[in-house]
Amino acid sequence: MDTEEASARDTWLVIPIVLGVVLVVLFLLLRALAAALLVVGAVVLSYLAALGLGTLVFHGLLGFAGAEPTMPVLVFVFLVAFGVDYAIFLVARIAEDRAELGTEAATRRAVAVTGPVIASAGLVLAATFAVLALLPFVPMVEIGVVVAVGVLLQTLLVAPALVAPMVVGLRRWIWWPGRSATRDPARATDEPVTVTAERS
């Protein structure tokens, strides 16, 4: 009971601090509050999904009586750190190419260039944490399973299938306020780029 109470108190203290610090760092890096909020929201969503899937595994497959009280906050710190890193690779690349190509074409290029790297890193990291599931210690098993699931969700699903499409869908507001005034004069409407080859 003491552990549960202390863990609950730590959770309500650590999670807001981590989110606040990450949001500030992302805003300073991207100079776009909307993009920073999108990245943080996507990471939190993947964390909640990983917790849900992990709970199904614990109760349905492994038969655990419950979850370790300290597991949610520890997993949150891991997944936020990893998830934000992967999202920064993607969104920062979009921001770099956006002025030249427009948001839609820049997003396509960013997914094509960073997608394989992010997916490979996610698979390696998920496999590393999955090894913890082999230990005869329930807290380590739970942390390993949830972190592995969360990393796979972030790298294979959230980044390419959620963050990237939302950047395109919100392209008129996603770079507010720092980059909102930066527009490509050749493609002011942010239309996709079409490249044609000339015959010699």
In short:
This protein is mainly α and 200 residues long.
Describe the structure.
With 200 residues, the chain is mostly helical. The protein has one domain: Multidrug efflux transporter AcrB transmembrane fold (Up-down Bundle), CATH 1.20.1640. Helix content is 75%, strand content 0%. The chain contains 5 helices and no strands. Helix 2 (33-62) packs across helix 3 (71-101) and helix 2 (33-62) runs antiparallel to helix 5. The chain is globular and about 55 Å long.
Could you list the spans in which at least 5 consecutive residues all have pLDDT below 50?
181-200
Strand content: under 5%
CATH class (first level) name:
Mainly Alpha
* Shape, per Cα inertia axes: globular
**How does the helix and strand content classify structurally?**
mainly alpha
Radius of gyration: 20 Å
Major pleated sheet: none
Estimate nothing, just give the exact number of structural domains: 1
- Indicate the CATH architecture: Up-down Bundle
| Helical run tally | 5
CATH superfamily: Multidrug efflux transporter AcrB transmembrane domain
What is the H/E order?
Answer: HHHHH
Number of strands: 0
Report the end-to-end length measured between terminal Cα atoms: 78 Å
The level of helicity is: over 70%
Task: Set out the fold topology.
Blueprint: H1 2-30, H2 33-62, H3 71-101, H4 103-130, H5 138-169
Helix pairs in contact: 1-2, 1-3, 2-3, 2-5, 3-4, 3-5, 4-5
Using brief descriptors, characterize the structure shown:
0% strand, disordered C terminus, single chain, 200 residues, Multidrug efflux transporter AcrB transmembrane fold, 75% helix
